[in-house]
């Protein structure tokens, strides 16, 4: 959710609705990848003599395709969409809050500057980080509930409200709804890494080129998003571990911090365990980013056209009222003269 380089021609709520619309569409399309990467990230690598330890359904997944096959086999195609409602609510609220606060803080920053001009790259990234942090504070409870729904078996799975109550009734109480907040706040650097890597790769691969072809921009975007995902994957895995049910090896004892999650993973699976599920994570990120921005641009254009139409109607009505008032004034003028 990187910041844009131009002032949005829409009010904050217009940009927020456009961003939320794009995010909901994009995540609905790739949702099976989301649940697969979540299952892969929470499972603990088991030894040959160990009992099944996957918290979802007792299965151990060896790859993305293996996870898809086993989920469909056990839960049907509907299993690939477990927790979809909560996820889309979370996505819509997160992106609405992000684009709303980004537009607000960016507008406030520009209006506070004595010399008008475009914000620098560092300022753009800082504004995006602030907006992302504010959005996380308001929307992370939905993410916690959705993660719980995605990582339990079909028999244990409950509705959105019931799962939320289960989290609140745990030993963490209401604070359990904000599990993984620190990791989420740190993860706002992901867009910054994406944008920085994009600019650096552009200078290296296409030096001096001011305009890129669509396929060149797509390649750079894909590479930069992949680099950002690789750099932040350990935190992504740790956040999922914090928000899901603790693995059986911990006897129901929840993790207290993302450092504790990472230490547990390294102890049981080695350093590579911090990068589990990275395949579907990268693929999901690439597709979501593309669909999100594509849809957001179209929705923003529709809003701009709608506002222009409404302004035109309003102007025409005001003009008619003005003309009517003028005619009445002219008609009454002779009487006033007498």
Task: Describe what you observe in this structure.
It is a single chain. This protein has helices at residues 12-29, 31-42, 64-75, 84-112, 121-150, 160-168, 181-186, 189-205, 214-243, 258-269, 278-337. It is mostly helical and 338 residues long. The protein has a single domain, classed as Alpha/alpha barrel (Mitochondrial carrier fold), CATH 1.50.40.10. The protein is globular and about 90 Å long. It is a multi-pass membrane protein. Pfam families: Mito_carr.
Task: From the structure above, extract its key features.
single chain; 338 residues; Mitochondrial carrier fold; mitochondrion inner membrane; MCP; membrane; transport
Describe the structure concisely for a colleague.
With 338 residues, the chain is mostly helical.
Alpha-carbon Rg, integer? 25 Å
Low-confidence stretches: 1-8, 53-57
> Secondary-structure element sequence?
HHHHHHHHHHH
The gross shape turns out to be globular
- What percent of residues adopt helix (DSSP H or I)? 55-70%
CATH architecture: Alpha/alpha barrel
Proportion of beta-strand residues: under 5%
Question: What is the count of structural domains?
Answer: 1
Annotated CATH homologous superfamily: Mitochondrial carrier domain
Give the count of helical stretches: 11
Query: Which structural class do the helices and strands define?
Result: mainly alpha
Number of strand elements: 0
Distance between the termini: 70 Å
Q: What name does the CATH topology carry?
A: Mitochondrial carrier fold
Main sheet attributes: strand count, strand direction, barrel closure? none
CATH class: Mainly Alpha
Mean pLDDT: 76
């Amino acid at each position: 959710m990187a910041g844009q380089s131009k002032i949005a021609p829409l009010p904050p709520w217009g940009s927020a609705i456009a961003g939320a619309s794009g995010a909901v569409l994009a995540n609905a399309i790739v949702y099976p990848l989301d649940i697969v990467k979540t299952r892969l990230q929470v499972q603990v690598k088991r030894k040959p003599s160990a009992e099944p330890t996957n918290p979802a359904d007792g299965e151990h997944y060896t790859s993305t395709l293996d996870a898809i096959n086993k989920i469909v086999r056990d839960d049907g195609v509907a299993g690939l969409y477990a927790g979809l409602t909560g996820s889309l609510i979370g996505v819509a609220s997160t992106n609405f809050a992000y684009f709303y606060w980004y537009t607000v803080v960016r507008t406030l920053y520009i209006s506070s500057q004595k010399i008008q001009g475009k914000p620098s790259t560092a300022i753009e990234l800082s504004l995006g980080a602030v907006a992302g942090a504010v959005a996380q504070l308001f929307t992370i409870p939905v993410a916690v509930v959705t993660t719980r729904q995605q990582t339990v078996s079909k028999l244990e799975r409950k509705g959105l409200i019931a799962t939320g109550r289960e989290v609140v009734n745990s030993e963490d109480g209401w604070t359990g709804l904000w599990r993984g907040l620190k990791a989420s706040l740190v993860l706002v650097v992901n867009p910054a890494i994406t944008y920085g890597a994009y600019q650096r790769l552009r200078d290296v691969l296409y030096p001096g080129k001011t305009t890129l072809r669509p396929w060149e921009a797509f390649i750079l975007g894909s590479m930069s998003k992949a680099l950002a995902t690789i750099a932040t994957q350990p935190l992504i895995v740790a956040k999922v571990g914090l928000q899901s049910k603790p693995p059986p090896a911990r006897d129901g004892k929840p993790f207290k911090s993302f450092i504790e999650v990472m230490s547990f993973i390294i102890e049981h699976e080695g350093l590579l365990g911090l990068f589990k599920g990275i395949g579907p994570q990268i693929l999901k990120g690439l597709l979501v980013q593309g669909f999100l921005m594509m849809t957001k641009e179209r929705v923003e254009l529709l809003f701009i056209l709608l506002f222009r139409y409404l302004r035109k109607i309003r102007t025409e009505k005001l003009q008619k009222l003005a003309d009517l008032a003028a005619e009445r004034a002219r008609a009454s003028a002779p009487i006033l003269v007498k």
